[in-house]
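Researcher: Predict the fold of Adenosylhomocysteinase.
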Amino acid sequence: MPVLRQIRERFAKEKPLTGLRVAACLHVTSETANLLLALQDGGAETAICASNPLSTQDDVAAALVHEYGIPTFAIKGEDSETYYSHINSALDTKPHITMDDGADLVATLHTDRTDALDGLIGGSEETTTGVIRLRSLAEAGKLKYPIIAVNDADTKHFFDNRYGTGQSTLDGITRATNILWAGKTVVLAGYGWCGRGVALRARGMGAQTVVTEINPIRALEAAMDGHQVMSMDNAAKIGDIFITLTGGIKAVGRQHIEVMKDGAILANSGHFNVEIDIPALEELADGKQEVRPFVDEYLMGDGRRLNLLGEGRLINLAAAEGHPSAVMDMSFADQALSAEYLAQFAHSLKPQVYDVPRDIDEEVGRLKLLSMGITIDTLTAEQEEYLGSWEVGT
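Model: Structure tokens for Adenosylhomocysteinase follow.
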């Protein structure tokens, strides 16, 4: 993670986070560990809890505690009660800055743990679902402190969402099932940056790709990109593999489950396990069995078998290792620099959701290019004058 390493080296010298406590609710992986170490080198006291019950790498969690003294509240496979007790443990550290992936930390702060709001100066949010929740909170006038939408930075969603999710989703499904992608009909619910990435890679593996959407512009883009576009009502009848990436609820619902073909595979790569209607699947099935790790086969009343992967949770982290470090390098660089920005300017920010400052976004891109040995052009004085002038025409 060369970009984050460069930031970490500067942080170690300048200590821009001295005196601040940071509580993170993120996927506890080796990539996240590098972010925490950068924050620690910047002078911050850090603590972390898991943002997903199935994404924790237990060896990383142990190393953070025993090797680096970072309080870590995460166990792979933890139940819901333990999950929220871990969130509360992270909040017990009385953070000044929060880092969230899905907004569960912020939601808890605004409901059950309002006592921990004192002293908070700002936060950041890593993923699309979390930003949606936070913007809703802000629009209702209930957000209590400023949040930077790291997810919306170009160096995050262009790369992490498209290239990271695109590769790691197929990786997780392949590890769980050992399927052959070539010739399969893959139905992708949602054509945001994550959906674009998964669709591109599924087609590259020889699959026939079908996209379902609610946004007419994205649906048109999917069609122009060469994918079949149709409603989920129609796609449900022909799909071999269904992958949800909407950030919403019940993208695959009861009516779709009722008409799926025998042997269909259902996987989710959205943040929460609500994109597939699992309660309906449970109700419609006569029974289920685990046929492989992370694969539950549901036997339907009419004899069909449907396979749910990773309990409907993020399949790239449930059954694989998540995004490659090369893309998380940029996402976590955005997180680190956003924390530095909050340390400097949070006092002047209102309780709203903010974009990552453009100069931070571009700095991350510049550092990434530098690490790759790529040089780009810069404008000459004459070119800058031309672009900044309205008098010069034909």
